Amino acid sequence: MSNIVVVGVQWGDEGKGKIVDLLTENARVVARYQGGHNAGHTVIIKDEKYVLHVIPSGILHKGKTCIIGNGVVIEPKALIEEIEGLRKRNVYVGKNLFISGGSHVIMPYHTLLDGKNEESMGKKKIGTTGRGIGPAYCDKMSRTGFRMLDLLDGGRFREKLKANIKDVNFLLENKFQNKKLSLEKVNSEYMRYADYLAPFITDTVVLLNKLIDSGKNVLFEGAQGTLLDIDHGTYPYVTSSNSSVGGVCTGLGVSPRKIDGIVGVMKAYTTRVGGGPFPTELNDKLGEEIRLKGGEYGATTGRPRRCGWLDFVSLKHAIRINGFTGIALTKLDVLDELDTLKVCVAYTYEDPYKRCECSKKGVACRFTDMPQDAMILEGCKPVYKEVKGWKTSTQGVKKLKDLPKQARAYIDYISESLNVKIDIVSTGQRRDEVVILRNPFK
Ligand code: GDP
Ligand code: IMO
Ligand code: MG
Fold this sequence. Notes:
CATH class of the largest domain: Alpha Beta
Oligomer: single chain
Structural class: alpha/beta
Bound molecules: guanosine-5'-diphosphate, 6-O-phosphoryl inosine monophosphate, magnesium ion
Shape: globular
Number of strands: 20
Number of helices: 13
CATH superfamily of the largest domain: Adenylosuccinate Synthetase, subunit A, domain 1
CATH architecture of the largest domain: 3-Layer(aba) Sandwich
CATH topology of the largest domain: Adenylosuccinate Synthetase, Chain A, domain 1
Largest sheet: 10 strands, mixed
């Protein structure tokens, strides 16, 4: 029996969907613990491309139990569309999918407010996915949110909606000069969703713990990445949930004692979508080339992803927080054509306010631990080490010995510098384009 977590190490889009799909073979259950339909997890099976948003990527395998945990926020319309989209492609979604009664509901005003808040922030906007994630988690914490189980009691739902809509309409009218939402319209829309989703809603804490206790292997699927974690990411340029490993326990009601392995999915370079500091960003032709070769466009919003070099400083931070038992290093093939690669080993920073000892002495600060303050991180300059490229195709390579020497040297350099074990190296989009050095389930 073994229960493994898959977590994004960077700013999301590391290839978690592919790794979850790969590891699902060894699992009986796949469970999502946080986030919502801001996530886009791509899985390529043969020539078919699937992008999963809220439904665990394990749904694409027959006979697996898929759970959406209490830590997830659900936009019912988007979830129904996702279910119907899969069914149209002959993927079975029925008695294999369970939704926690405790997961929170994204309401139309959450989506609306997400957009309005962003607009009002101007240049400082976060660059959210516009899916209502932040406002929905905000209501969860304010204890005014709806949980999926609230949808099952029409009377209670309407009563609470009446109070919520009153507050929201005040804000919409007075702060944003927006037209009001209709209580009746929202109520009847959500009651339709309730009818559709009711058969899926259950107490997933009881279900999941029973499955674990009966010896079933579980894969915990993370969304986003550690640097987008609300507590440990580059706040405020983060998402609104705990995307790092801690989210598993709170987002599914599972004891940390039941976690046997934590696989960090790490891109062989770095990408970020939306705003916020990114010290190793390449704002040049090379950044553009990596974007093109890596197909770095958002799976959910289609936005171009910002691209840059691997960053050991932020990776060390992510490793410290998650305690990875192994790493799945993805998209190695994207770097195939480069003469030289760079890796950031430290940051330098010149404090404009001259607050620190270094600046008083007239020298720049040097950080090997990631500063907590996004404003400081914004001003950090990377210190690079150069690594020789391999200039040979690695696409589809399945054995370590078939990887070019310099590519293996890059992998070893990452592993040794960060003191992490590399379990998997991914060399392409497809399920079988992978070198497995150690199966996390064995
Ligand atoms: P996720 O959100 O972490 O699941 O990642 P996304 O699906 O948003 O983005 C990862 C993208 O990289 C997808 O288009 C994947 O098909 C693709 N991908 C994953 N692993 C590899 C790889 O090893 N090589 C290449 N070239 N593409 C990959
Ligand atoms: P997956 O699971 C990459 C980013 C947004 C924005 C910030 C806040 O596919 O890796 P939000 O809508 O969550 O309030 O936006 O977080 N973001 C992601 N970036 N991958 C994701 O998910 C993301 N989900 C949110 O771009 O910067
Ligand atoms: Mg994604």
